[in-house]
Design a protein that fits this description.
The protein has about 260 residues and is α+β, with helices and mostly antiparallel strands. The chain contains 5 helices and 17 strands. The chain has a 5-stranded mixed β-sheet, with no helix packed on it. A 4-stranded antiparallel β-sheet has the order 4-13-10-11. Strand 10 (about 100-105) and strand 11 (about 115) form a beta hairpin.
């Protein structure tokens, strides 16, 4: 169970640091002890890397750029991106992604802007406003599973307990690395990730079929009313491939 702490014990060295009861009253000890799974801190199996592109060497290269608003918070995937030439990219477009990296928004982290980097974004660029986790051994922790776990209520409670209240809630790489994750056997992790991926694929298939039916009904009305003058309607298509968004002049959405 998750309970609320009623007393706090702090090392004397921490007394000079900001401590807010409302952000530090999470007690998940009982849940961890009775889960039946291995409990590990993220720092035990992953690193928060800050590998960045060389601006001079990449000045003429064109790359895909992912910022926080490009993450689908409902499905936990990269839904869009922008393409830039290196010398025309926003200042925050510096972090190099690798397949399997976990992107975690450090701004308003409880929103769930978290995703595992798919192969099509390998060696592409993301904003420095992500904590970018790289798992050391995929035979111990599956990237897809970790991304899903970090979108659970248990992870959200831990994000909440680590938030620093500035103009908006933020967390640091250190906060993320100090989070506790429950790990079933690696085969079960992979199964969970695969089943989720299949469910998302089915979601888009059903969505597209629904739009085909809706468009067909609209076409019937269009043809009835306008006969030969009727427009031919096309059903929109949605899928797992990220779309290219219009390039914005400002980075106002960067920190959202």
């Amino acid at each position: 169970m998750i309970s609320v702490k009623k007393a706090f014990t702090l090392p004397i060295t921490d007394l000079s640091h900001k401590f807010r009861v409302e952000n530090n009253n999470l007690d998940i000890a009982d849940l961890l002890d009775n889960s039946g799974f291995t409990a590990k801190k993220i720092k035990e199996f992953a690193d928060a890397h800050r590998n960045e592109r060389n601006k001079k060497q990449t000045a003429t290269e064109v790359f895909r750029y992912v910022q926080i608003s490009d993450i689908d918070v409902a499905l936990g995937r990269i839904k869009s991106y922008r393409s830039f030439r290196g010398d025309q990219a926003p200042n925050n477009a510096r972090r190099i992604m690798k397949t399997g990296d976990i992107l975690i928004s450090t701004r308003r982290p409880t929103r769930g802007a978290i995703a595992s980097v798919p192969e099509e974004f390998d060696e592409q660029i993301c904003t420095v406003f992500f904590t970018t986790l790289r798992i050391r051994d995929w035979n111990e922790v599956d990237p897809g599973y970790l991304a899903l776990f970090l979108r659970t209520s248990l992870a959200r409670f831990q994000f909440q307990s680590s938030i620093t209240e500035t103009a908006y809630p933020v967390i640091s790489d250190t906060d993320v690395l100090d989070m506790t994750v429950l790990l079933p056997h690696i085969d079960r992790q992979r199964q969970i990730a695969q089943e989720y991926g299949a469910a998302v694929t089915q979601f888009f298939a059903s969505l597209n079929q629904a739009y085909v039916q809706i468009t067909s009904a609209k076409q019937a009305v269009e043809s009835l009313v306008l006969a030969e003058e009727a427009e031919v309607l096309e059903a929109p298509t949605f899928g797992l491939t990220a779309s290219i968004e219009e390039v914005e002049d400002e980075e106002s959405s960067e920190e959202q």
